[in-house]
């Protein structure tokens, strides 16, 4: 489990986001790529809260998403 360094621009983008979004970003910092359900499991947040946090993070270009090759119904999330 190695942490990916969060740069100053990312920290600034996170400043006024809700705690749930900050937690999701922190978990992604330590886990390179996770699905929404894996994020919910890691953060112990409800799936709906994780979904909202990911939306806010994507709006700020903090998180990138792509389709999973193994299951096209799922999206994989990483820090941008």
UniProtKB/TrEMBL annotation:
Chain segments annotated as coiled-coil in the UniProt record: none
Pfam family, one: MarR_2
Matches recorded under InterPro entries: HTH_MarR-typ, WH-like_DNA-bd_sf, WH_DNA-bd_sf
Any one Gene Ontology BP term: regulation of DNA-templated transcription
Source species, domain of life: Archaea
Occurrences of domain HTH marR-type (ranges): 16-73
Designated name of the protein: MarR family transcriptional regulator
Species name: Halobacterium litoreum
């Amino acid at each position: 489990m190695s942490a990916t360094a969060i740069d100053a621009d990312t920290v600034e983008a996170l400043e006024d986001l809700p705690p749930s979004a900050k937690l999701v970003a922190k978990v992604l910092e330590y886990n390179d790529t996770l699905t929404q359900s894996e994020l919910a499991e890691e953060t112990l947040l409800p799936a709906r809260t994780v979904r909202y946090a990911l939306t806010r993070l994507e709006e700020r270009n903090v998180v990138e998403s792509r389709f999973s090759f193994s299951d096209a119904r799922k999206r994989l999330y990483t820090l941008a």
